[in-house]
């Protein structure tokens, strides 16, 4: 039997001997109510309780109508006896008789609530209690109705204040320790504490003559009245958001408690929280065995009170109490997690950041102090994984506490879009409609009906959820294997990401940095590529050989035409071939593509495709970003092929020099553009519309003279008109309809006007990325980093990450001269150097520290220029005789290397 369960059973024996069960007809000779039990002092009752526990003697069913016995000086109290049980449970289980000494320092404060009168009328609901130590048949009512005391113990701000005052006067904090242990070790006692009505104990005690259903109905009416007053502005607080705890009073109580020296109560407080966690864990397991639903109100309320404790961030709590609480919280049913997220978002906004910092500190400390091996991974550490699971509840609370857009703004699934049978991509779309693969959707997000795409502005920045120590330690190959295992389990009918025994941080990607998540995507892509190679090999054996690579042969002078024609043929034949490893060959040039040629291919094709003269995209002059040409003469297939190019770049781990506004990445991930997206799309227009929304005077019609007909320019400079509503030129914008005008205007610019072009573009993108965990791992702003690279350009990071070969070291003179020259170059020349060495001038996700550059010695002093193997990020540098000569040769090499000089 577990320690906590054993303690509860011994406690029941103790109360049975000292107070009785309350049944006048009791015949148990070891029960005070029967009249057969000897009169025992508390110390004697403690010894006998242990004996009864070892013998597994029968226990009476409790009745509330009991009269507690008075305490004699120097005796153990029930509460102090319970707090001492942890030292004797093991010996009791092994039949070794160990009794707590009467001289032990076991003190407790006075009773916290009035004694229940013996003539108080009882109801059916009052006579039934449960204990975690009894059989499953006792678990028929609320799982936490485990109070074995004759008195309901609870705390309020006033009670705690009175206890503290008494302790200060007597210069003894034993009463405080006892009170904290009594209340914070019992879920039911904590559930009755710090309620919004301080003068009343539990509502069930106020209405002894009412049935449980009638009490709940009355409580609901009271809550509605309170909510109407508290919320105001006609807003009624929903049932899922309601919290009976007086948060303001609770925080004041904790603040006053913090003024007491921690040494006076810390040990008792930590022990109480550990006992609380054990109790909840046992009751959750029992409810699971019985098939009964748990009391969500109690679960949520207890964890709200506990996580409000400001001392949780101290090392004493981080090492013991917080990990145990996180472990129990991670076991909460999905409905309780959802409720906790909503309550946190509504009632605990000021506390969210503190809770996050405590959880991050717990994870970081466990990572730093942990010893991980090839057999024991960070995913196997229960404290880390449990804290991460609780952090996910906090993550969704953070979304709810911030500014959210309507779920209706999510883009429709392209697989449901109508498409002609003679379309080039009809086969792909039809195949996708029949796909039964499980989607990467978070169950908690579905329960709350929110998505990270709905978050316009989170309450806490997303970047604060990253844990860099964890991201540096986690082995993504192992984590990806766990992810695939859980996904396969979900395909067999299990809840995705929740039932698999193997933990994967990919289901909790908010805690990983973008650079680490990129590795998860990399492993997914590479496994698919290797799979295609194996299939090709097997087909070769049986006599039907296929090409294991996506091979493109293009001419430099006709790179757009050749690339699009070949991709069109491949996509028309079998879109799955796009998931093979890309191999590019420039016609008339020798060389094997090990990655460097592909980088140059993407660089050249992007430069030409996004040239405004090509006519598919237009340049926004103010933001210098590219946007879809609404009057483009190109077919849908052309835009689809551009989406394929973008997807291939991600699939083949290539950074592109593209400049889209953020709304493009939001739309790619499935979120429609809104008025707020105009800020980085067209700042002047955004400012004008914002001033319209902020205008509060009645002269709006005369001030703006704006109707529901708008005008805009196409790519050729022609002015076009569009009515946002029927007869829009006759409807003026006023205070009543200004919000509607702004929404319609934004929707037209960002969605309706480019609907045809963008859907084709997104369809091509998803033809490559549809089966990857891209949507699971990355938010829109992280997808921008994935495609365009990091905006940070720090050559110091590159120098620290560079390795040397062929006899060079970081102390070699020519290497010192090399970096002095590089740091002195202008930014444009530094980008050219990066292009020369790697085939791309873009910075990888995570910064230049993630780029492994190698500088190798290429002979003695000569007039040759430096060369580079872009496939392997290697610079071949002759050992020049002087710094001046090095500077001259290096500048020439990086300025005249396009098309030749790179291998």
UniProtKB/TrEMBL annotation:
Protein name: Ubiquitin-protein ligase E3A
GO molecular function: ubiquitin protein ligase activity; zinc ion binding
Composition skew (Low complexity), residue ranges: 93-134
Region feature Disordered, mapped onto this chain: 93-147
Enzyme class: transferase
Any GO BP: system development
Catalyzed reactions per annotation: S-ubiquitinyl-[E2 ubiquitin-conjugating enzyme]-L-cysteine + [acceptor protein]-L-lysine = [E2 ubiquitin-conjugating enzyme]-L-cysteine + N(6)-ubiquitinyl-[acceptor protein]-L-lysine
Organism (species): Bemisia tabaci (Sweetpotato whitefly)
Keyword Phosphoprotein (UniProt): yes
Domain of life: Eukaryota
Keywords from the named record: Biological rhythms, Cytoplasm, Metal-binding, Nucleus, Phosphoprotein, Proteasome, Transferase, Ubl conjugation pathway, Zinc, Zinc-finger
Sequence ranges assigned to domain HECT in this UniProt record: 574-903
InterPro entries xrefs: AZUL (IPR032353), AZUL_sf (IPR042556), E3A/B/C-like (IPR044611), HECT_dom (IPR000569), Hect_E3_ubiquitin_ligase (IPR035983)
Active site: 871 (glycyl thioester intermediate)
Subcellular compartments: Cytoplasm; Nucleus
Gene Ontology cellular-component terms listed: cytoplasm; nucleus; proteasome complex
């Amino acid at each position: 039997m577990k320690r906590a369960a054993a303690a509860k059973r011994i406690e029941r024996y103790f109360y049975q001997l000292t107070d009785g069960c309350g049944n006048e007809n009791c015949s148990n000779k070891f029960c005070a109510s029967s009249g057969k039990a000897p009169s025992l002092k508390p110390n004697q009752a403690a010894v006998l309780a242990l004996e009864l526990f070892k013998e597994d003697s029968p226990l009476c069913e409790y009745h509330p109508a009991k009269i507690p016995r008075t305490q004699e000086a120097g005796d153990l109290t029930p509460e102090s006896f319970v707090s001492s049980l942890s030292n004797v449970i093991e010996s009791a289980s092994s039949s070794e008789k160990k009794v707590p000494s009467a001289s032990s320092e076991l003190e407790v404060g006075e009773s916290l609530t009035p004694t229940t009168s013996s003539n108080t009328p009882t109801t059916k609901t009052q006579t039934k209690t449960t204990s975690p130590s009894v059989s499953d048949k006792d678990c028929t009512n609320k799982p936490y109705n485990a109070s074995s005391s004759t008195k309901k113990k609870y705390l309020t701000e006033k009670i705690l204040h009175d206890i503290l005052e008494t302790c200060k006067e007597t210069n003894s904090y034993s009463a405080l320790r006892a009170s904290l242990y009594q209340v914070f070790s019992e879920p039911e006692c904590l559930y009755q504490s710090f309620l919004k009505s301080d003068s009343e104990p539990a509502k069930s005690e106020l209405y002894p003559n009412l049935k449980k259903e009638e009490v709940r109905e009355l409580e609901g009416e009271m809550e509605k009245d309170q909510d109407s007053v508290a919320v105001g502005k006609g807003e009624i607080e929903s049932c899922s958001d309601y919290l009976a705890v007086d948060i303001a009073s609770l925080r004041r109580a904790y603040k006053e408690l913090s003024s007491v020296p921690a040494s006076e109560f810390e040990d008792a407080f930590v022990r109480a929280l550990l006992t609380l966690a054990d109790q909840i864990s046992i009751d959750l397991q029992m409810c699971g065995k019985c098939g009964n639903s748990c009391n969500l109100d109690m679960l949520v309320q207890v964890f709200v009170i506990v996580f409000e404790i400001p001392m949780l961030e101290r090392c004493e709590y981080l090492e013991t109490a917080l990990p145990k609480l996180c472990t129990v919280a991670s076991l909460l049913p999905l409905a309780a997690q959802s409720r906790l997220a909503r309550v946190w978002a509504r009632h605990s906004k000021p506390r969210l950041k503190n809770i996050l910092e405590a959880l991050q500190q717990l994870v970081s400390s466990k990572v730093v102090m942990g010893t991980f091996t090839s057999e024991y991974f960070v995913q196997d550490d229960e404290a880390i994984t449990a804290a991460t699971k609780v952090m996910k509840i906090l993550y969704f609370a953070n979304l709810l506490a911030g500014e959210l857009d309507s779920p209706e703004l999510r883009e429709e699934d392209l697989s449901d879009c109508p498409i002609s049978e003679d379309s080039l991509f009809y086969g792909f779309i039809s195949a996708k409609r029949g796909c039964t693969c499980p989607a990467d959707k978070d169950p908690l997000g579905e329960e709350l009906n929110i998505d990270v795409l709905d978050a316009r502005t989170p309450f806490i920045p997303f970047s604060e959820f990253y844990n860099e120590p964890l991201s540096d330690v986690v082995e993504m190959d192992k984590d990806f294997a766990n992810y695939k295992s859980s996904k396969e389990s979900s395909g067999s009918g299990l809840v995705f990401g929740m039932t698999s025994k193997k933990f994967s941080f990919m289901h909790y990607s908010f805690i990983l940095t973008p650079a680490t998540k990129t590795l998860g995507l990399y492993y997914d892509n590479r496994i698919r590529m290797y799979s295609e190679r194996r299939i090709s090999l097997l087909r070769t054996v049986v006599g039907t050989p296929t090409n294991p690579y996506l091979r493109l042969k293009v001419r430099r002078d006709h790179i757009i035409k050749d690339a699009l024609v070949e991709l069109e043929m491949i996509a028309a034949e079998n879109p799955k071939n796009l998931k093979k490893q890309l191999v590019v060959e420039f016609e008339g040039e020798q060389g094997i593509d090990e990655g460097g040629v592909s980088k140059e291919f993407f660089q050249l094709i992007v430069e030409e495709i996004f040239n405004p003269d090509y006519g598919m995209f237009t340049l926004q002059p103010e933001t210098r970003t590219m946007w879809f040409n609404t009057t483009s003469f190109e077919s849908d297939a052309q835009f689809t092929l551009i989406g394929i190019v973008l997807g291939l770049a991600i699939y083949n781990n290539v950074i592109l020099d593209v400049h889209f506004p953020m709304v493009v990445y939001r739309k790619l991930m499935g979120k429609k553009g809104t008025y707020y997206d105009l800020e980085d799309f067209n700042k002047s227009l955004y400012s004008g519309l914002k001033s319209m929304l902020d205008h509060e005077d009645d002269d709006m019609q005369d001030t703006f003279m704006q109707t529901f007909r708008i005008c805009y320019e196409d790519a050729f400079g022609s002015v076009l008109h569009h009515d946002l509503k029927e007869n829009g030129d006759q409807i003026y914008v006023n205070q009543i309809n200004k919000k509607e005008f702004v929404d319609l205007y934004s929707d037209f610019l960002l969605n309706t006007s480019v609907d045809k072009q963008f859907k084709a573009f997104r369809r091509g993108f998803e033809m490559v990325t549809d089966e990857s965990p891209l949507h699971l791992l990355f938010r829109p702003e992280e997808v921008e980093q994935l495609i365009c690279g990091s905006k940070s350009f720090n050559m110091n990071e590159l120098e620290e990450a560079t390795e040397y070969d062929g006899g060079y070291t970081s102390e070699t003179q020519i290497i010192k001269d090399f970096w002095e020259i590089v740091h002195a170059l202008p930014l444009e020349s530094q980008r050219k150097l990066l292009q020369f060495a790697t085939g791309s001038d873009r910075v990888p996700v995570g910064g230049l520290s993630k780029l492994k550059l190698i500088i190798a010695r290429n002979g003695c002093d000569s007039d040759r220029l430096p060369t580079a193997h872009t496939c392997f990020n290697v610079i071949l540098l002759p050992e020049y005789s002087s710094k001046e000569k090095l500077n001259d040769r290096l500048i020439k090499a990086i300025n005249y290397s396009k098309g030749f000089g790179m291998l």
